[in-house]
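Progress note, project year one: complex with zinc ion.
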Amino acid sequence: MSPQTTAPGPVAGSGATAPRPRARPPRRRRDQPAYEPDLPPEIPDSRAEPRSAPTGPACGGSAAGCGCVGRCQRRRDWSWSPSRSCTSTRSGAPGHGTGRIRVVPVAGPASAATGRTVRYTVEVEDGLGVDARTVAATVRKALLDRRGWQTKDLVRFVNVTPAQSAAGATVDIRVTLASPELTDRLCAPLQTRSEVSCWNGTRAVLNLRRWVLGDDSFGRDVARYRIYQVNHEVGHGLGHGHQTCPRRGTPALVMQQQTITLGGCQAWPWPTRP
Ligand SMILES: [Zn+2]
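Model obtained:
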């Protein structure tokens, strides 16, 4: 259950139908994962809309994928939409792939860290239009960087190759980039609403939509948001729950739901402090 109760800033003008906020969180079943997805605890209705909508990442770059010059705006259903100054409505992130998940190779030497071994795969859904090598390199950097969980938790990440995985090797954490549609399926019964990522079972499910568009908490720096996305969901896999901003103006904790609110902190993608 998320400790955060602050709703995200709503955005007017999409016409999207927002699901009704839950009156109270449902009782967790025995087979339900321990963590809520990284989703706003509630989506406000139209009565809560401000007069001027907050703006998100710039739409000019390929990262945001709008193919226009302007600012993205957040819809009521938590998705981004181009503002009026945009000339294209291309979202930049397909809603679905083939549904087939493929384990991809991770290039680079093994980690020199010592500590408890955590075996991981990098997996990508087919049909997403992403470069699997780039995805693998980003995940590897997030996991093996000296600012990462290896330093914080004294673990050693060991990659399980596609061949080893096919042969039935044990995998502790499957870092999986999935389309919004598949994310919803992999995260069920958690409700990711095609917008956010989650941890479920042994999977750190990275929602392609956030991978491509990033989030306004990290501004235009989508690459930095991806590091956060990996570290946050893998953090759940290592047993960490959500945290809140410890002090205004300081770097956020990686287990904060930075996609929803920074709580007065500054965006920070690493498990260790700067
Ligand atoms: Zn989380």
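Residues 1-23, 28-34, 40-77, 79-90 have pLDDT under 50 and may be disordered.
The helical segments are 132-144, 149-153, 162-166, 180-187, 208-213, 222-237.
No further modelling is planned for this target in the current period.
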